[in-house]
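Changelog-linked ticket: FE2/S2 (inorganic) cluster example.
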Amino acid sequence: MIPAPFDYVRPGSLDEAVTALADAGEDAKVLAGGQSLLPLLRLRLAYPSTLVDIGRVPELKGVRDEGDHVFIGAMTTHDEVLHSDLVRAECPLVALATATVADPAVRHRGTFGGALAHADPAGDLPAVAVALDMRMVARSRDGEREIPAAGFFVDYLETALGPGEILAGVRVPKLGPGWGFHYEKFHRTAQAWAIVGVAAAVRRSNGTIEEARIGLTNMATRPLRAAAVEQAVRGLAVTDTAALRGAAAHAAENTDPPSDLHGGPDYRRHLAQVLTHRALMAAAAA
Amino acid sequence: MPQITVTVDGITHEVEVEPRLLLVHLLRDRLGKTGTPIGCDTSNCGACTVLMDGKSVKSCSVLAVQADQSDILTIEGLSTDGTWHPLQKAFHEEHALQCGYCTPGMIMASLDLLRENPAPDDDAIRKGLEGNLCRCTGYCNIVRAVRRAAAEMSGREVSAT
Ligand code: FES
Ligand code: FES
């Protein structure tokens, strides 16, 4: 289908972009890579009055080392994230999850910031953002503010970004030595959204798990941390499969999984436990 | 209406477009490049895949205005002087198509895959083509064709399986 008509602006700088967004009023939308937005427009599920295309804003592109964290510009494509040596070395969990996003053609256009600002609870990157305590950098005409990932994802397709704000980039803390990572995604067909996904980061020392961070994809209307599992897994031996399974059994606590044609909440609760166990095993061994 | 400049299969066009015009509609309806089909409304099928500045994109999921200043390669620009590209030949020889609807997208996605990985194994081929659906062939011959084309493009012997 053909999208409904809209006005289009293509700013050349971030200052121009936030001004254009503020001027365009509340029915305007930011166009990043368009890989979620354009299908919505084609299906006429969204009717923005204006699209502010930030695809040619140079400040929003690229990955930089900023000391204790890595800054990933919002308009860095998934493909560029995957090819970034810095991301692979310092934020392996980001690379692992990004590799499972959609398919190669979509990863050429889709962007890191776009996927986070779209805030689809079935998307892979929001769970990674909360697991790693990323810090989201929002820009508006009034300046810049930082929003912790834990407060960024508010509800289904809804973030803490205000009407005139653009996600400019994300600060990804470096975790240092001893960590292992894994992203475990369950879906029925290639390129499909996760029915449930689990992002796991595990710090080990002398064969014991000292600390874990676990993010859950699609277990509520926003990404969640599996806090009970993170607690239970402390001090377990990395090779103790049974104990790790026991810890993973807490994965569905305090979740509110959706129901759709792929399965109901009970099925997803079961999946969360199984996948968390797998993710823990893989991260502990990585 | 915005004015854009796009190069499609080596020819540069200056066109006025409505912002909502999709790249695939620009190609098919305005520039007559009907070799690139539309297979779905949900950005799943990959039939519309073209290369944009050398990388595969689903042309139904790009606005024409976003393609301003870019270089597009469609299936129609693949042969040179009437000689088929090794991928086109291999799809023919391996019977990698039945109705052919998915084929332009399959070939363009395969081209992108071979750019990144000139000697993919079957698993890498299947992963590389995960954004392209075929309702006819069951994929086996498509994988074979890509393997054959990869071998031909790098001057290796075609392995028999
Ligand atoms: S027409 Fe199906 S993905 Fe573009
Ligand atoms: S040959 Fe018919 S869809 Fe692939």
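Closing comment: Example verified and attached. Residues B 38-40, 43-48, 58, 60 surround FE2/S2 (inorganic) cluster (ligand 1) (CB under 6 Å). The domain at 182-285 of chain A is CATH 3.30.390.50 (Enolase-like; domain 1).
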